[in-house]
Design a protein that fits this description.
The complex is a heterodimer. By secondary structure, chain A is an all-alpha fold. Chain A contains 14 helices and 2 strands. In chain A, strands 1-2 form a two-stranded antiparallel sheet. Chain A is globular, with a radius of gyration of 20 Å. The chains are: A mainly alpha, B mainly alpha. Chains A and B meet through helix 4, helix 5, helix 11 and helix 13 of A and helix 3, helix 4, helix 9 and helix 12 of B.
Chain lengths: 322, 290
């Protein structure tokens, strides 16, 4: 990666890292953390869905696994938060590999892949809701123990920095995908799997590596979520809302681009907060707006918000009358 | 072990629920057969129909079975309009886009209902739900027997419509060969919308059959939609007979896994079948296409 690739990432990270120190209120900090966590989950989805063209409707399977592993390892086995988070990310990647191996080996694509991922997430949700070690329907409550080893900070701004760091790593990974040989293979498989195979690309292996990376990033989002909010149940961890949010962010922001998920998450969460304020406590109105945005983006801006900018620039570049 | 009477009752209850499941799955499989796409808004549209049945009863006291006369054409119109003016134009003919547009639609419908009706659960306050038919030593709930008979009848009607009418011939032509159908003068967009409308009409019938014994809240459809997906995949995407057989099988499986595993784990049997069928035989029992 060249300096020209790195510069925008560093600039964005700098701005994000400075935000919490502008005297934001507690609720704005919460909003920032939630938005960045959704952006991170979206960055994960984008690796598989954006660059790889495999639309998962069940990324909650990875988010939830990362979250539950992070919480359970600390609570039941007494691990420190850092290694628990790391193990959660690793476990998420393994779950991704397993689901990917089963689905891609069976040749599932398009609607079929979307359905099978959705079903896996539902199976996990039902199991987590019924099992003992996940706290069952009552959920898990991480004990409040501020400290560096428990990743709980009295100053919430420090946690924002931690999430920004994770978003930074995911952004760099996405940048790398745009430039690397692996990324080129992944895009080739997305555009035309048969042709890519004919050119000697091992499609199964490429898709497996993509789903593992994608799942790991989304599992990190889950681990950070539980570490910040200190509470988890099956509906939060494996519910459809996170699967939907993880795919909305990149699609609205710009599918298959490094910054798309971040832009999409900021735009959608901001819009959601605004609608919630305007609607005055009527439940569901913010989600109606999300759904309408999804339809509108696909109808009018299939390349997402970032695509709009690019199209404008292109239009400007074409001389009048050409 | 369980007494034989309990097992027989579980099987019969499963078959009765399964027939209504099949009716829900019919619309899904029909739309898949023609548009070659999974309609993710199917569950939310079922919820809309269920609220319509509830509203008709709560506001003007219309019997749910009688309400069919009004709600079926209304749902047909809604489905026709959605396909013609939202899903079709928004998706630019790209399969992944249809998937996402119908997902967006389901989010809008589900949460629109949540905003209107809140998350309260509503049921019909009717004593019809409690009536039973005695069959020797077995007691069968009357609304469920009606549901079973009506669901089988509607499946038969739909089969006749598809195989004996001009509309049916046009639908099958579009499903088989879109371009060819267009060349012989069939209006493909119209046929798409009609098919989507018929799918929604099936949901309306299902809603009228379900409501006497069931309840509705904005998330009700979501509980049915994965079941319907499972049935469609099990039966073979696009197969009417497959939807019926798949529905009955799933109904019985659910009934028995509920009996053996309890309510909270009972549904897992369905999902495991779903994943297994997708992975082992994605063409389903009646599907021919690889």
């Amino acid at each position: 990666m060249s300096a020209r690739d790195l510069a925008p990432v560093l600039l964005v990270l700098g701005v994000l890292a400075a935000l919490p120190f502008l005297g934001l209120s507690g609720s704005l900090l919460n909003f920032l953390v939630t938005t960045l966590i959704i952006a991170l989950a979206g960055l994960g989805w984008n690796v598989l869905g954006g660059f790889g063209g495999q639309y998962s409707f069940g990324h909650a399977a990875f988010f939830g696994t990362g979250a539950y592993a992070t919480a359970i390892l600390q609570m039941k086995l007494g691990w420190n938060a850092w290694s628990a988070l790391g193990a959660g990310i690793g476990l998420g990647a393994l779950v991704g590999l397993a689901i990917g191996f089963l689905s891609f080996r069976a040749g599932l694509r398009g609607s079929y892949f979307a359905l099978v991922t959705l079903a896996f997430a539902e199976v996990f949700r039902i199991l987590a809701n019924a099992a003992d070690f996940t706290g069952g329907a009552a959920g898990l409550l991480l004990p409040l123990r501020p400290g560096l080893a428990t990743l709980q900070f009295a100053d919430r701004r420090l946690f924002v920095l931690l999430v920004v760091a994770f978003v930074g790593v995911a952004l760099l990974a996405s940048r790398w995908l745009e430039r690397s040989r692996f990324g080129a293979h992944l895009i080739a498989v997305r555009e035309n799997e048969e042709a890519a195979r004919a050119l000697g690309v091992d499609a199964l292996s490429v898709k497996l590596r993509a789903i593992a990376l994608s799942a790991a990033i989304t599992a990190a989002a889950g681990g950070l979520y539980v570490q910040y909010f200190l509470y988890l149940d099956a509906g939060v961890a494996y519910g459809t809302w996170i699967s939907v949010e993880a795919l909305l962010a990149p699609i609205v922001g710009g599918i298959g681009t490094a910054f798309g998920p971040l832009v999409g998450a900021l735009a959608l969460q901001g819009l959601g907060e605004l609608t919630k304020h305007l609607a005055g406590g009527v439940p569901g109105v913010d989600l109606v707006v999300f759904g309408a945005c999804l339809i509108a983006v696909i109808a009018f801006a299939p390349q997402g918000l970032l695509g709009l900018r690019r199209r404008k620039r292109k239009a400007r570049a074409v001389p009048v009358g050409a | 072990m369980y007494a034989p009477q309990i097992l027989i009752e579980a099987a019969l209850n499963g078959l009765m629920t399964g027939a209504v499941y099949a009716l829900i799955a019919l619309g899904l499989t029909l739309v898949y057969g023609v548009l070659h796409i999974i309609n993710f808004a199917h569950g939310a549209l079922l919820t809309v129909a269920m609220f319509a049945v509830w509203g008709a009863f709560a506001l003007v006291h219309v019997d749910p079975y009688l309400a069919m006369v009004g709600i079926v054409p209304l749902m047909f119109g809604l489905g026709y309009g959605l396909q013609r003016f939202v899903i079709g134009p928004a998706s630019h003919g790209n399969d992944n886009n249809v998937l996402l547009v119908t997902l967006g639609l389901s989010i809008v419908l589900e949460n629109g209902l949540l905003a209107l009706f809140r998350s309260d659960t509503r049921a019909l306050d009717s004593d019809a739900a409690l009536q039973v038919i005695e069959l020797g030593p077995l007691l069968l709930s009357t609304p469920r027997v009606i549901g079973f008979v009506a669901a089988i009848a509607v499946t038969g009607l739909l089969w006749l419509l598809l195989n004996r009418s001009d509309t049916g011939r046009a639908i099958r032509a579009v499903a088989r060969e879109k371009l060819g159908a267009r060349l012989v003068g069939i209006e493909v967009d119209h046929v798409y919308a009609v098919t989507f409308g018929i799918g929604c009409a099936c949901l309306a019938v299902a809603a009228c059959l379900l409501m006497p014994t069931y309840y509705v809240n904005p998330r009700s459809g979501a509980a049915f939609v994965l079941v319907a997906f499972t049935i469609v995949v099990l039966g073979g995407m696009g197969s009417i007979a497959g939807a019926l057989v798949g529905g009955l099988i799933i109904g019985v499986v659910e009934s028995f896994s509920g009996l053996l595993l309890g309510d909270s784990l009972g549904q897992i049997g369905i999902f495991l079948i779903f994943i297994l069928v997708l992975l082992v035989r994605p063409t389903g029992l009646f599907g021919a296409r690889a």
